Each structure stands twice: as structure tokens, then as C-alpha cells.
Amino acid sequence: MKKFYCRENKDAARVFIQTLAGAGYQQVNSPDAADFLLMDHDYERESYARWRPYFTPAARRKRPVFIYPHVPYSYFLWDAIVKPTGAACNFVVAEGGKEAMRLYGYPYRVEVVGFAGMDVQPFTPTNGTKLLFAPAHPIHNRQYPKPEGLAHARRAAEWIVQNLDAFERVTVRYSHTLEESGLEAFKGMTGRVQFEPVDIYRTPDIRRDALRAIADADIIVSQSTFGYLSIAAGKPTVFYGYKDMTPHSREGYVKQYEKYRHIFYYPLVLEDMSVDELLAARLTPDEHVENWKRLNVGENFNAAKFLNVIREYV
Questions:
Q1: 208-to-11, 40, 211, 230 alpha-carbon distances in Å
Q2: pTM of this prediction?
Q3: Domain boundaries, the chain
Q4: How far from chain centre, in Å, is Cα 277?
């Protein structure tokens, strides 16, 4: 029985682990005991000493490394943020991720395996006005990866407060505190606004919890992982903060964004919309959003393809 070690990022690896287990592979707790590794990305600067020995050429010949998506859009990481170190295969969600990596020059194998963890749904129109605002979350240090994350959330919150009367209900789903999330505009609004604090690092099934919140709303304002989940679930979704945002992590910014901006950039951005335009987005699918969804969300997870790639090396 072949053994694998997985570095898990919340529940992002769950479907990959379950697929491997169902095919007879055994998960182990030490990378040294494994025949291959399943990682969410190559090592970053802060984890250099910990993981570098597993990415040397000799180590990779002995123990292949496969990369699953850290988040649905993490394909940008190898554009000058994380150094490519020779993974046997880098799995991505959809064709847009694969094309973006080709455009910025990722040098190793990339394969599309679909959107893991849920069935991708077609756009479903809604006619209510229940708004769910789910901003990106600050990370472990209770700060956004870069300062503009705070500014973008603050600007979106102010837009929603200015248009509060247009909505039957506004739910704000956030982590840490309102201030740390850039949501001061909502302070003192208990009664007019429902607050849904969530600990993304401790909630046992964060994806299921997110999908519950999405199902209960008529329109979603979000970005990042939650936004991708909402679009995959077929809900009318508008992103905020993308107008003047360059993809980044706490490690830095990408360097070649203009080469794949046409893939990454979401067509409906809150900062460019009136409240009437936002509400109109509930009613019919937008052709530009549908094309974006095809490139960035794609189809359901393809377990057979994932396993076939693993078997080529193990």
C-alpha cells in the first residue's frame, strides 16, 4: 500500500485526501514515512527551512510532490511569490488557471481537475433583496495580507451602509473583530444588520458553513474563496476590491498580472455599480460572468483524472 503525507489547508485538501483513501492509499502523519507528498504550494520564505529538504531534486525523485489548490485561485502564487521547485504536477481548478500559469511562464506540469468539494451549479436568478456581505478575512496575525485589503473592505462596507434601505436584510459575515476586518461602518447597527462572526480556522467544516450562508441570501458581495464558492453555487455574486487590486499574499505581489488579468479579473465590481445595477445582477446571468466562471470555476472535481496523474509517478 502506497502512503502519502498531506499538508492540509483547512478543508481545501479534504476531497483529495478522501479520493486517495478511497483508491487504497494510506495517509501518514510524517512526510518522511510517505511515498509521495500532497502540498498546497511550494514552501514560502517563512517555511523555507522546514520544507526545502523535500523539494530538492534528489528528494523529489524519491518522493514526488503534488500540489493541490490552496484556494480556487491560488494559481497566481508562482508568479514571483512562491518559487517553483519542481512539483511532479500542480493541480488547478479550471482552464483559466492553467492558461494563466502558461502565460507567466510556470515551468512544470499543470493539470485541471475541477472544483473540489461541491457540485458546480448554474446561475439561479433570485428576486429577493437579502444581501450577504462576506469580506475576505484577516489572517493569523489579525491583519490582512496587505494594507489595501482593509481599505477595500472598508470602502465596500461604506457603500452598503449608504444603500442599506434597498435591502430587506443585510448579513455581515466576518472574522476577528469589525475593526480588524475594516467594517467599522456597521458598528451600532444591530437590528438593521445581522452579524455572523465566524472563526475560519476553527470551524470544523468551513465550506459547508459558507454554503449554508450563501443559500440563505439573494445576492452576495464578496471576493476571494467565499466569492468563488458563491459563484460555484450559482448565486448572483458581485466582487469588491478588484478594481485596483493586484493579486498578492503576505509574501508579496505578482509581477506579471497584465498577462493574465483578463482571466483573473471578475467582471462585476461593487465600486463600479449603482444599487440598481447590483439588484439587476440577481435577475439574469451576465455573459461576462459566465465566461469568467468557465475559466475560473470550471466543472466538478474529476477524481479519475487526479488519480491517473498520481499513478503516473507512484
A1: 10, 20, 5, 12
A2: 0.94
A3: 3-119+299-313, 130-296
A4: 25
Asked whether the beta carbons of 24 and 314 are under 8 A apart, the reply is no
All three cell numbers of 248, joined, read 498578492
Range 3-119+299-313 classified under CATH 2.60.40: no
| Percentage of the residues of the chain whose pLDDT score is greater than 90 | 75
Whole-angstrom Cα distance, residue 284 to residue 14?
33
- The single-letter DSSP state of residue 138 is P
In this chain, the answer to whether the domains covering 3-119+299-313 and 130-296 adopt an identical fold is yes
Burial 202-234 (b: 16+ CB within 10 A, else e): eeeebbeebbebbeebbbbbbbbbbbbbbbbbb
How confident is the model over 71-114, as pLDDT tens digits? Answer: 999 999 999 998 888 899 999 999 999 999 999 999 999 999 99
The reply to whether CATH 3.90.75 applies to domain 130-296 is no
**Which residue is listed with cell 475593526?**
179
